[in-house]
């Protein structure tokens, strides 16, 4: 369900705004998106796993709040991030 350390490093390198960047909104959203994809597959297989479903809903809400923040601060960065991740907005 969780992502591996190697995959997380790949995402950080791909979406980092500057060197040693691990906390920018782009990096956080990309890591959350990867976790959401993994957890969605898990929940589809195990429909009665309500605690994982709740965790999935919390992750989606956190990603939504980060994207709304980015949309308010920098629309061009928001649009490029949505395009790179393939999200519907």
TrEMBL record:
<keyword id="KW-0699">rRNA-binding</keyword>
<dbReference type="GO" id="GO:0019843">
    <property type="term" value="F:rRNA binding"/>
</dbReference>
<keyword id="KW-0689">Ribosomal protein</keyword>
<dbReference type="InterPro" id="IPR009068">
    <property type="entry name" value="uS15_NS1_RNA-bd_sf"/>
</dbReference>
<comment type="function">
    <text>Forms an intersubunit bridge (bridge B4) with the 23S rRNA of the 50S subunit in the ribosome.</text>
</comment>
<keyword id="KW-0694">RNA-binding</keyword>
<dbReference type="GO" id="GO:0022627">
    <property type="term" value="C:cytosolic small ribosomal subunit"/>
</dbReference>
<dbReference type="InterPro" id="IPR005290">
    <property type="entry name" value="Ribosomal_uS15_bac-type"/>
</dbReference>
<protein>
    <recommendedName>
        <fullName>Small ribosomal subunit protein uS15</fullName>
    </recommendedName>
</protein>
<comment type="similarity">
    <text>Belongs to the universal ribosomal protein uS15 family.</text>
</comment>
<dbReference type="InterPro" id="IPR000589">
    <property type="entry name" value="Ribosomal_uS15"/>
</dbReference>
<comment type="function">
    <text>One of the primary rRNA binding proteins, it binds directly to 16S rRNA where it helps nucleate assembly of the platform of the 30S subunit by binding and bridging several RNA helices of the 16S rRNA.</text>
</comment>
<keyword id="KW-0687">Ribonucleoprotein</keyword>
<dbReference type="GO" id="GO:0003735">
    <property type="term" value="F:structural constituent of ribosome"/>
</dbReference>
<dbReference type="Pfam" id="PF00312">
    <property type="entry name" value="Ribosomal_S15"/>
</dbReference>
<dbReference type="GO" id="GO:0006412">
    <property type="term" value="P:translation"/>
</dbReference>
<comment type="subunit">
    <text>Part of the 30S ribosomal subunit. Forms a bridge to the 50S subunit in the 70S ribosome, contacting the 23S rRNA.</text>
</comment>
